[in-house]
Amino acid sequence: MQKLLWIWMLLFSMSAAHAETEQYVLDDGDRISIKVYGEDDLSMDILLSTQGRFDYPYLGRLQAAGKTVGQLQSTIERGLRGDYLIDPKVTVNVIQFRKFYVNGEVNQPGGYDYQPGLTVAKAIAIAGGFTDRASRNKIQKTDSKKSTTQKNVGLSLSVGPGDIIVVEQSFF
């Protein structure tokens, strides 16, 4: 029974992460994989440029920044359909998300690859956890989309790609 519960929880978390990835908005620094069934020349891995664009065979320069994976997939399918392929089967996946940053009183400050479902607590754990001098209450989060900084955030707050977390020093 316990094994069955564990399997169910694993499948649920995988489907939740997949759903979050489907809603993920692409931007500079993301690495994506484009696969076109039966067309190796049209399948490739791409690091999005500083403007979120990339060159794609037959279609020219495509804008990926600001689009979800599904929207980009549809754009490529529409572009290839007709003149180039009868019924293209395209899949687009994020193979490396852009980074989030953890600074201040953590054991390994720096930039780390974003992961769907990331929280402040998970981000701090990825950065090696709190140092002995870290304040567990004075944590700032700068949202990269809104360019706003929240002070004294909770550990369960969501973290997005490009966000910056700063753990301040405790006085005691």
Label the structural class: alpha+beta
Could you give me the name of the CATH homologous superfamily of the largest domain? Answer: wza like domain
Distance between the termini: 47 Å
Summed over residues and divided by their number, the pLDDT gives a mean of: 86
How many structural domains does the protein architecture include?
Answer: 2
How many beta-strand elements?
10
Strand order of the largest sheet: 7-6-10-8-9
Order of helix and strand elements from N to C terminus: HEEEEHEEEHEEE
Helix coverage percent of residues? 10-25%
Radius of gyration: 20 Å
Q: From the 3D coordinates, which CATH architecture of the largest domain would you assign?
A: 2-Layer Sandwich
The level 1 CATH classification of the largest domain is Alpha Beta
Shape: elongated
Low-confidence region ranges: 13-19
In the CATH scheme, what's the topology name of the largest domain? Answer: wza like fold
Which strand-content bin applies to the residues?
25-35%
The largest sheet is: 5 strands, mixed
Work out the helix count: 3
What does this structure look like?
This protein is α+β, with helices and mostly antiparallel strands. Strands 7-6-10-8-9 form a five-stranded mixed beta sheet, with helices on one face. A three-stranded antiparallel beta sheet has the order 2-1-5, with helices on one face. The longest helix is centred in the first third of the chain and has 22 residues, at 2-23. It folds into two domains: 16-96, wza like fold, CATH 3.30.1950.10; 99-169, Outer membrane lipoprotein wza fold like (Roll), CATH 3.10.560.10. The chain has three helices and ten strands; from the N terminus they run αββββαβββαβββ.
